[in-house]
């Protein structure tokens, strides 16, 4: 019988500066997707996964986590995209003894993408004045892995998913996977970095999550009105297969955007389909 439990906090959608990207073809808003932070806690200790993006989100996450009255031993960062870790600094203000952990590849990527401790140009332009201190303070996950009150949390390398060197965290005693961006929960998926073979690599990573047969999958980006069922694994595959088809059949940003919105009308935040399109086609 495990003594662990988990809880999920979802940071709400956040508007991007209108100057950051060309306007959406349908005139809709450009928003950052809801972002989940997971707390895995035992009787005394807890670990936080993916503290969020803007400073205000980090302050809210810290306040939420403090309500559990556990010793936060560390913050695990699933991958180097800024939306998953730039808010670590305000969380560390609340929990100064917590470590920040990530895989060796992720730590290197965090350093590469925050030259001089500043957010990379995309994030700075999208959220001017809203991002806190992004000096990298992450250290590589210890060889012995992570634990909460003596129970194991196991980081798995997932390779390329929505970026390079992504990971997910498996908590065997809870049948839980905290997936970072390997799995999405019915929110439009970011595919600008997929290149020619990125979708195949991403599908392999999803297979690695499915092989663990988790009961619960907390996706990095989730519709806050939905639970965290394992069926999001299949949903994520379906979106990728659809995107691969659409990549092969359209020739412009607008065509991609319209095709994906038409195929996934219930999925949250079409602005991310537009972000993908802008990253892949010059017009
Ligand atoms: Zn993300």
UniProtKB/TrEMBL annotation:
<dbReference type="InterPro" id="IPR001279">
    <property type="entry name" value="Metallo-B-lactamas"/>
</dbReference>
<feature type="domain" description="Metallo-beta-lactamase">
    <location>
        <begin position="34"/>
        <end position="221"/>
    </location>
</feature>
<dbReference type="InterPro" id="IPR050662">
    <property type="entry name" value="Sec-metab_biosynth-thioest"/>
</dbReference>
<protein>
    <submittedName>
        <fullName>MBL fold metallo-hydrolase</fullName>
    </submittedName>
</protein>
<dbReference type="InterPro" id="IPR036866">
    <property type="entry name" value="RibonucZ/Hydroxyglut_hydro"/>
</dbReference>
<dbReference type="GO" id="GO:0044550">
    <property type="term" value="P:secondary metabolite biosynthetic process"/>
</dbReference>
<dbReference type="Pfam" id="PF00753">
    <property type="entry name" value="Lactamase_B"/>
</dbReference>
